[in-house]
Every structure is written in C-alpha cells, then in structure tokens.
Amino acid sequence: MPKNPNPFAGTVRCGARTRVGIPCQGLAVRQTGRCRMHGGGGSGAPAGNRNALKDGFYRAKAKARRRAMNAFIRNMIARFEELTYRDSTLPRFRPPELYDPDYEPPSGQ
Q1: Is the pLDDT of residue 20 over 80?
Q2: Which of 43, 53, 55, 81 is least enclosed, having the fewest CB within 10 Å?
Q3: How far is CA 98 from CA 49, 78, 104, in A?
Q4: How many domains in the chain?
C-alpha cells in the first residue's frame, strides 16, 4: 500500500475569508471549525470552569479580618518586647553598624 504524500489532504479546512478574499486553508479545530488564527481553540477558560471564580481574598470581610489579625500580631510583638526588656539590665541589641559610624567589622583569618 503506497503512503499518502500529504496526510492532511482529507481534513477539514478553516474556510474563513482572508484579507485577500480567498478562503483560509488552515487546518480547522474541532470546536469552532476555524483555524487557530481565525478563532479556533481559544485560550479562555472552559465553560463552567470553577477556577475562574473569585476566591474571596479581597472581600471586605476578609480584608477586615486580615487587618485585625495584623494589628493583633503587632500588639503581641510590642508587648513581648516590653516584657522582655522592662526588668532587664541588658540594653536592647542593636547592631553596631547601625549607630556607630566608625565601626569596622572584624577581619577574617
């Protein structure tokens, strides 16, 4: 049996009118019957796609909850620092490079 020199010879063609006015000869996709350049196989979400729905991250209720949680965390950090250093005779740690302009880091061996 001889091989078919053009395996796409019997396939459906696009048929959309080109700018020249002749029908497009691109291979048509199943959904639309047009080629990829004339509307076949779009990149949009499939019909009924639940992933395209919003997740509620930007709802007012969710934003208020995040603001409250962030304020709570900031308050807890401030209280922890207050309790840690209130009765301590040790100064709070501050890296010397932040407040000493003549600071030289120790040289390696």
Answers
A1: yes
A2: 43
A3: 53, 21, 12
A4: 2
